[in-house]
Amino acid sequence: MAELLKNIYNQHFFDEFTVAIKQVVPDFNKSAFVNNIYDKEWEQRELKQRMRHIVLVLKPHLPEDYKALINTVLKIIKQLKKRGISEAGFEWMFLPEFVELFGLENYKVSINAFESITQFTSCEFAVRPFIVKYPERMLSQMLLWSKHKHVMVRRLSSEGCRPRLPWAMALPTLKEDPSLIIPILKNLKNDDSESVRRSVANNLNDISKDNPKTAIKLVKLWKGKTKETDWLVKHASRTLLKQGNVEMMKLFGFGSLENIQIDDFQILTPKIKIGEALAFTFQLKNIGDLSSKIRLEYGLYYQKANGSLSRKVFTISEKEYLKNSTTTINRKQPFKIITTRKLHLGLHQLSLIINGKEFEKYDFELVN
What we know:
- The chain is of the alpha+beta class.
- It contains 16 helices and eight strands.
- A five-stranded mixed β-sheet has the order 2-8-7-4-5, with no helix packed on it. A three-stranded antiparallel β-sheet has the order 1-3-6, with no helix packed on it.
- A hairpin with a 2-residue loop joins strand 7 (346-354) and strand 8.
- The two termini are 19 Å apart.
């Protein structure tokens, strides 16, 4: 089994981190810090809980005054950079929590801290309480950040205000009305950085879940301008396409199913065990005299703990099927234990979805 993500916080990590702290805080007590990190609840804590725990354990070792605290955090980051950690990964995303937890009433110092820290590790989670408390002021600041010279500051301006950012505090006002987000996305849609453009796509996809008309309007405006924005709007449209939104289907050229047929559908593994794969096959026929662009997906209905079924949609392909053609399609879907889904034994179902239209469901079982 793959190593759990939360175990990135190990002895090697804390050795690296505490060396940097010691350079900034000479009287830092490493042994006391490490002993308090590895308390009796440590093993049970999940990733974000461990991040918060590190902050709370480290806080008493740092200055009480907020401005001095932030200056110390920035100096620690500088030391980490000197030690070769120039492009920090997610494991350092607890550092912005010092701003999130202790700086909400000190707006100016906190905004400057975000701008600096996010150039080392993303502040996308930490800015959200500030957006809730100061919505217009923060979105104005993020609009300014969208023109910043540093790519990670520009990315923060989009990623931080995503209405449905995973693992993050909700932003109910932006779910209801994303109008303050739109100018930021407009500034960034042609950004030189792929990571920034991906953030824009993910933000617009978030918007589509609560405000589909707003998202569709922007997709129509931006589509067909450049190869990069075409990728962006397609990625931003994935939820509406999976939902079979008719307007979005037409916009991307997925048309009538009048001449499309499905034959010989078979579930090859009607009973599977955890660790095995569901296998199925079918033929897709285009009996028309013109080629047809098809978005081909399948819906997998996973059994939940209460016995009900919950659908997740998986894409097979998007392609042109030639006139008067027959294509045999084989597919396997692994049933492995993953952290984001708990598997339950019993009845499951499978369906085909073509250009957003779902067809008959077929049963299969997950067994011991």
